[in-house]
Design brief:
The complex is a heterotrimer of chains A (about 300), B (about 325) and C (about 240). Chain A is mainly α and about 300 residues long. Chain A has twelve helices and four strands; from the N terminus they run αααααβββααααβααα. Helix content of chain A is about 70%, strand content about 5%. In chain C, strands 6-7-8-3-9-10 form a six-stranded mixed sheet, sandwiched between helices. A four-stranded antiparallel sheet of chain C has the order 2-1-4-5, with helices on one face. In chain C, a hairpin with a 2-residue loop joins strand 1 and strand 2.
Chain lengths: ~300, ~325, ~240
């Protein structure tokens, strides 16, 4: 029944969503790797980028996008300095609640800024033309899907090269594996963390650009729901390693996209329950992650 | 002798705070009373959460599911018969055609919360860390989804109203005290101490024969029952309830109250709940203009959340173990 | 006399309110091997961790080439020419041997263009042979060689070793001590913390005995023939 309703449009949209979620998963996974911190406020970085695009809608597109990247990276570094650094080594509960408080705080600030024009929501309209489909071999694919997949593929490849072929990449992987020993060997903790935070910010900015194409109306809870879904995907995939986290993000994005598109609306009311029941089942069977093998669940260490 | 005194203070500290709030509530104007009642019901919820999260060290995002179950159960069963049959026509007959009183509804709420928690906890208590967090979050989502869609057990997406507002200052205070008393009894019992041992070092605890899964299940079930009770108190305080009121926002707010107060102690749970409720109420007032020490404070609209979130974040950055340092209240010792 | 590479003066390190190391003073001059032995829990590892900046110093001084390094971070001390071979080796099992060695370069101070990993490969030819293998696949003795090699590629002035013979088979232990003997030839100074008292006393120019956080006795290589003296030092209270 489900398969009958899956058409190419649904599949391609799902792949596009999966690509975007994969990028968010990498952003979350990078910071978790070096700081052992789940940044619940990651979605707010995307929100900030989206608002920047909205407020610079009148600018030339490249400048608008540049502004978006600038704001998001600056905000990420600010988060690291003001929030993450003092909390290094704290318990997961404290870190999670603090990042949640920051998320709340940023949403509240965004609300105040947004409401200055007395209407809720701003529109980021500069590149919505990408939301239109083009014909490829007789089927319609939205341009944004192609862009999302291309950007995701490029970003993941670039990141993989950075991590495996460069010295800073080696240091970052070492810090993620054993922070204490890495420091003993002379790996500069702050530099590695700053690099990871900046990369994570760049990814969030890219996600903001791609999301506003499909959802040009920006409000303070922009990307909140998506962040939660990606977090679930990352833990289900396996947060301990970057590639399992990414795969988890992509999978949950793809599955969400397919289910949303394939099932008729009146049958989707209990869909969240089904999906989350599946999540529980997967976690019971493989607590370290669906794609992790022979590993214990992530150890929260200093 | 000292240990007996410690126990007394450990219980009396949080209890007297709650009683004090209750007393002040009776003297406050009707408009202000709501703030105190929010505070007391928050105490009940946060202490219920603490019973599991604080003692086991396992972060659960699902405890508000039990508050929801308790709230809706108590609410649906106490709506006056005529209104219920007129408005909630899709309910199962045994729900629609019967009504129970205030106290029975609270007992029902606690019972259902406990049973639900037990069933959920059976499989889930094997998990720890992030996996437990996500799995319990999934429970919250499932509960929310079902309550919202299954119109045979409740109002679904619409507001459940006309619930008798039987939670006044007295009921709220007694309810909060009851939850505190049970939490105190549990943490001092052998069960509670075994669980706390596993919090610090699960492997070592297993080594001395603590059955970690079983202890967590006990605490989870008890926490669920207390949370259900708190849900009953909540719905009778508000006179209505919607699924959104017992979902994400309440989950994070109550968890934040616990962590800011001090995750690992009963004192922390109570202090956190009262402090943040108090702060929230004060900031709400400030948005309407309030006098503090002779100076008029007038916050721009919407800044209440900014201040609340900033202060919570600041407390945790400066003092990660929480306002109470995660310790119980003790008689001051000679150095 | 030139400044000692390492000087500890009245060092006191605490865990909470308990002093794990008390009033420890010693010096290590360039090219020396100095040993630090003692029973379990005596504070030997604690001393090394304090030098490396991993543990805070409660009282006393730690001086490298005459400059105080008290309170500095581990990376900063690594960048001043101190390398620690930690207890249990702590190699990165999911990385290759070569990547592990390259990590050691993080603290390298000058880039003189020469093949940087040569120091490790010369001392331990096995590492060169296995350089593309995952470090987790090596045996205990080989991992210990890797850990020492990794510390050496940074060309440190001072090499700290924390119980390198722990968990190793007797042959592997001999290999390790043979290698240690050759290191001062390259101008590297060694402070060696060990459980194997006799091996250490025979190898080092000077060996201090640490019991319950305090230095009791200093032994020289000749005392390797006199085990009773060592035992007496351990048991002294």
């Amino acid at each position: 029944m489900i398969l009958a309703a899956v058409n190419f449009q649904t599949l391609s949209d799902a792949v596009g969503l999966g690509a975007i979620y994969a990028l968010m998963a990498v952003g979350i996974g990078l910071v978790f790797g070096v700081l052992r911190l789940v940044n619940f406020a990651y979605g707010q970085l995307v929100m900030a980028g989206a608002y920047t695009l909205a407020f610079t809608s009148a600018w030339p597109v490249p400048l608008s996008i540049a502004a978006c990247f600038g704001v998001v990276v600056a905000l990420s570094l600010a988060m690291e300095t003001v929030v993450f650094r003092p909390l290094r080594g704290q318990s997961p509960a404290v870190m999670l609640v603090t990042t949640f408080a920051i998320a709340f705080l940023l949403q509240a600030i965004a609300l105040i800024i947004d409401l200055r024009d007395d209407t809720l929501g701003e529109v980021a309209a500069s590149i919505t033309s990408l939301n239109e489909p083009i014909s490829v071999g007789g089927v319609d694919i939205r341009k944004i899907t192609l862009v999302s997949v291309a950007v995701a593929a490029f970003a993941l490849l670039a990141l993989a090269l950075l991590l495996t072929r460069t010295t800073i990449g080696l240091h970052t992987r070492a810090a993620a594996a054993d922070f204490r020993t890495a420091r003993l060997l002379g790996v500069r903790a702050n530099r590695v963390i700053a690099v990871s935070v900046v990369l994570s910010g760049l990814l969030a900015a890219a996600v903001a650009v791609m999301m506003t194409v499909q959802f040009p109306l920006v409000s303070p809870d922009f990307a909140l729901r998506d962040t939660i879904v990606v977090l679930v995907g990352v833990v289900v995939g396996g947060i301990d390693r970057l590639w399992t986290a990414t795969l988890g993000g992509f999978t949950i994005g793809f599955v969400s996209g397919v289910l949303n598109g394939a099932l008729p609306t009146d049958k989707t009311v209990y869909l969240p329950s089904a999906v989350f029941a599946l999540v529980i089942l997967v976690l019971l069977l493989r607590p370290a992650g669906l794609f992790a093998w022979g590993r214990r669940a992530a150890v929260e260490r200093a | 002798m000292r240990r007996g005194a410690d126990a007394v203070v450990e219980l009396l500290g949080p209890s007297s705070l709650v009683v004090a709030v209750g007393l002040v509530a009776t003297t406050a104007s009707l408009a202000n009373q709501v703030y105190f009642m929010n505070a007391l019901v928050s105490v009940a919820i946060v202490v219920a959460i603490y019973v599991f999260v604080g003692n086991s060290g396992v972060l659960s995002f699902g405890q508000i599911s039990f508050v929801a179950v308790g709230a809706f159960a108590a609410g649906v069963m106490t709506v006056p018969l005529e209104s219920k049959q007129g408005v909630l026509t899709t309910l199962f007959p045994f729900l629609r055609d019967h009504t129970i009183g205030n106290v029975p509804s609270l007992l029902l709420a606690a019972g259902l919360g406990g049973v639900f928690a037990f069933l959920v906890g059976l499989p889930l208590m094997r998990l720890s860390g992030l996996a437990a967090g996500i799995a319990t979050f999934a429970v919250l989502e499932i509960t929310h989804n079902i309550l919202r869609e299954w119109t045979k057990i409740g109002p679904g997406a619409t507001t459940l109203s006309l619930v008798p507002e039987t939670t006044g200052p007295l009921q709220a205070t007694i309810g909060a005290l009851a939850v505190i008393a049970v939490a105190f009894a549990y943490q001092r019992s052998r069960l509670g101490r075994q669980l706390r041992a596993s919090r610090e070092d699960p492997l070592a605890a297993r080594g001395v024969g603590v059955h970690v899964h079983r202890q967590r299940l006990w605490a989870f079930t008890l926490s669920g029952a207390l949370a259900g009770l708190a849900g009953g108190l909540l719905v009778h305080q508000l006179g209505s309830i919607t699924t959104e009121q017992v979902y994400l926002e309440l989950t994070f707010l109550t968890l934040a109250m616990l962590v800011v107060g001090g995750l690992t102690s009963l004192w922390g749970a109570v202090v956190g709940a009262l402090a943040i409720s108090g702060l929230d109420s004060f900031l709400s007032q400030a948005e309407n203009g309030v006098h503090v020490l002779g100076v008029k404070l007038d916050l721009p609209a919407g800044t209440r959340l900014v201040f609340l979130a900033s202060i919570m974040a600041l407390v945790l950055i400066l003092r990660p173990s929480g306002l109470t340092g995660g310790r119980e209240l003790r008689f001051p010792r000679r150095a | 006399m030139p400044e000692p590479v390492l000087e500890l003066a009245g060092l006191e390190v605490r865990y909470g309110t308990v002093a794990a190391v008390r009033d420890v003073s010693l010096r290590v001059d360039k090219g020396e091997i100095v040993g630090l032995i003692g029973p379990n829990g005596a504070g030997k590892s604690t001393t090394l961790h304090a030098i490396m900046g991993v543990l805070p110093t409660h009282r006393g001084e730690i001086r490298l080439h005459g400059d105080s390094v008290r309170g500095r971070s581990p990376e900063s001390i690594a960048h001043r020419g101190v390398a620690l071979v930690p207890e249990g080796r702590r190699i990165f099992g999911d990385f290759t041997v070569e990547e592990n060695l390259r990590l050691g370069l993080a603290a390298h101070r000058t880039h003189n263009g020469a093949e940087p990993l040569a120091l490790a490969y010369d001392l331990f030819p096995m590492l060169k042979e296995f350089r593309r293998r995952l470090a987790g696949a090596l045996s205990g003795g080989q991992q210990q060689q890797l850990a020492i090699g990794r510390a050496l590629v940074a060309e440190p002035d001072l090499l700290l070793l924390d119980e390198p013979s722990l968990g190793l088979a007797p042959l592997a232990v001999d290999d390790v001590f043979q290698a240690l003997r050759r290191i001062p030839e390259r101008g590297v100074t060694i402070l060696l913390v060990e459980q194997r008292a006799l091996h250490t006393v025979a190898l080092a120019d000077r060996t201090h005995v640490l019991v319950a956080g305090k230095l009791r006795l200093t032994l020289d290589p000749a005392d390797a023939k006199d085990p009773d003296k060592i035992v007496a030092a351990y048991l002294a209270s």
